[in-house]
Amino acid sequence: MPGGAAPSPARHGHRATSVSSLSVTSTDTPDGVPGPGRPPSVDRLARDLAARPDASGLPAPLLVDVARRVVDALREQNGGAGPALDELAGRELRAAAERLLQPVVNATGVLLHTNLGRAPLEVHVPATATNLELDLATGDRGSRTERTGALLARACGAEAALVVNNGAAAVLLVLAALAHGRGVVVSRGELVEIGGGFRVPEVMEQSGARLVEVGTTNRTRRDDVARAVADPRHDVALVMQVHRSNYRIVGFTESVEVAELAGLGVPVAADLGSGLLDAACPWLPDGPPDWLAGEPAARQTLAAGADLVVFSGDKLLGGPQAGVIAGSSELVTRCARHPLARALRPGGLVLLALQDVALSYLRRDAHRLPFWRMATTPLDPLRERAAAVAAAAGHGVAAVEVASVPGGGTLPGVEIPSAGVAARGDLRAALRRADPPVVARVAEDRTVLDLRTVDPTDDGHVAAALRAAVER
Ligand SMILES: *Cc1c(COP(=O)(O)O)cnc(C)c1O
Fold first, then answer.
1. Do residues 352 and 123 lie in contact, with contact meaning Cβ atoms separated by under 8 Å?
2. Which numbered atom of ligand 1 lies nearest the CA of 196?
3. Which atom belonging to ligand 1 lies closest to the Cα atom of 274?
4. At what angle do helices 85-98 and 42-49 cross, to 10 degrees?
5. C-alpha angle 316-317-320 in degrees, rounded to nearest 5
6. Domain boundary assignment for the chain
7. For 251, left (φ over 0), alpha (ψ -120 to 50), or beta?
8. Looking at the DSSP assignment, which residues form a beta bridge with residue 442?
9. Widest Cα–Cα separation across the chain
10. Which of 115, 198, 350 most suits a substitution to test ligand 1, by most atoms within 8 Å of the C-beta?
11. What is the C-alpha to C-alpha distance for residues 214 and 242, in angstroms, rounded to an integer?
12. Residue with CA at minimum distance from ligand 1 atom 14
């Protein structure tokens, strides 16, 4: 969320969970208390709900929905045993507030948690017009994606780059623009499903390109690709390499390096997924962390001979949701001119955020991005925070050593040593009820909170939420 645009409702007690006493008036009873089996009218209840402190911020139509649920529940009780109106109203108001998009504390230890919006990012967006599609030098119409694309291209050593809505959109656009009605060679070992319904063969079909599978699940050689490219029946327009982001093939394996694919006579596109700009991580004072070893990076993949690389904005790049197509300016231009590019373009808020991220990489201070800050926090300060949180949370909470993971479909099997706190039993539901909600994980009948993915300013809140959850 653009933090500067509007105060977040959740940070301001929007989800106050206390159930205030409620004077609900019923049309049926003179004393304002609905009699047994006689629920109040929905409209009347909705109006009364508006006066409750825990309803603040919910607009009238949503309060009507809440009131309807309460009245339905009361009808179902039909005068028998069940929660009182006051309690039902509190429960339904909380459920309505929980359905809204809001900040949460990520204590899962998964740095790029897709359910939690992947890379966290602070964005300040003033309520002003921007030169989104205006060239200030000439006064002519400009391209919204070229300026951010140019910065990212500079940061990863590409001739040009184009920004679209997400990584999936970037893959779709590359295939549609460069291979519609023609063949695209992909190794059988890379026909992956990334998750969330993104399956390479299906995206291929939607783009109008024809999949030409080569090799086997565990082994694909340069010759397999070369033979397919040379076969005129396949009419190959593109060789695509897909990063096996979220799983590994181990054992008797062989795969083709990008360098071996270059020079086969057709463009090579690499779907990197993760968005690591440069394997040398020049933006990190201590260089690349050990756990990043082996992750493909945009600069090195292009240098090895790929004509295009495709990656997400909100994975290892640490930016907003976006997809980047970077590489040869001729191919990037063909993607930009395709009609789908208009449908897949990002909005001004995203481009502004992504521009900040790109400038940060060019200044080599991307270690300040929340993702890199969290990913590279040393163990000692995490242990100190864990001890402090455990002490503040009190009885039943202990500091523990844990392992964070990069997440976001990157670096499968990789663990980053970390520290956190743990308590017995499954306290997740209680922690999600905190304001803001705290998201934890459960392992071996313990609730574990990893502090690597928690902003230090949230430690006090985490301790208080944990104390409340344990006491309950
Ligand atoms: C994550 C990923 C995608 C999809 O990117 P989104 O930004 O989630 O749309 C595509 N390909 C690979 C290899 C990925 O890892």
1. yes
2. 8
3. 15
4. 70
5. 115
6. 14-98, 105-119+373-471, 146-366
7. left
8. 447
9. 88
10. 198
11. 13
12. 273
Select from 452, 449, 454, 455 the least CA-distant residue to 469. Answer: 449
Give residue 311 CA to ligand 1 midpoint distance, Å. 7
DSSP codes joined into one string, 282-350 = TTSTT-S-GGGTT---HHHHHHTT-SEEEEESSSTT-SSS-EEEEE-HHHHHHHHHSHHHHHTPPPHHH
Q: How confident is the model over 313-364, as pLDDT tens digits?
A: 999 999 999 999 999 999 999 999 999 999 999 999 999 999 999 999 999 9
How confident is the model over 150-201, as pLDDT tens digits?
999 999 999 999 999 999 999 999 999 999 999 999 998 888 776 667 788 8
Query: Containing H/E element for 407?
Result: strand 397-407
Enumerate residues 6+ apart whose C-beta is below 8 A from 100. Answer: 9, 10
Ligand 1, from 271, 276, 317, 410: best to mutate by most atoms within 8 Å of Cβ?
271
CA distance 214 to 189: 9
User: Do residues 398 and 422 make contact, with C-beta atoms less than 8 angstroms apart?
Assistant: yes
* Amino acid identity for residue 267 in this structure: P
Which CATH code of 3.40.50.720, 3.40.250.10, 3.30.980.10, 3.90.1150.180 fits the domain covering 105-119+373-471? 3.90.1150.180
Residues found in the chain: 472
Contacts of 428 (CB under 8 A, 6+ apart): 439, 440, 441, 442, 447
Helix (H, G, I), strand (E, B) or coil at 77: helix
Cα 17 from chain centre: 27
Interior/surface letters 261-272, b for 16+ CB within 10 angstroms, e for the rest: beebebbbbbbb
Among the CATH numbers 2.70.98.10, 3.40.640.10, 2.60.40.420, 3.30.70.270, which is that of 146-366?
3.40.640.10
Give residue for tokens 């076969």. Answer: 231
Ligand 1 center from residue 325 Cα (angstroms): 12
Please report, rounded to a whole number, the percentage of residues in the chain having pLDDT higher than 90: 73
Burial class (CB in 10 A: 0-12, 13-18, 19+), 469: buried
Chain centroid to CA 368: how far? 19
**All residues at 6 or more sequence positions from 225 whose CB lies less than 8 Å from its CB, including other chains:** 185, 187, 214, 215, 239, 256, 261, 264
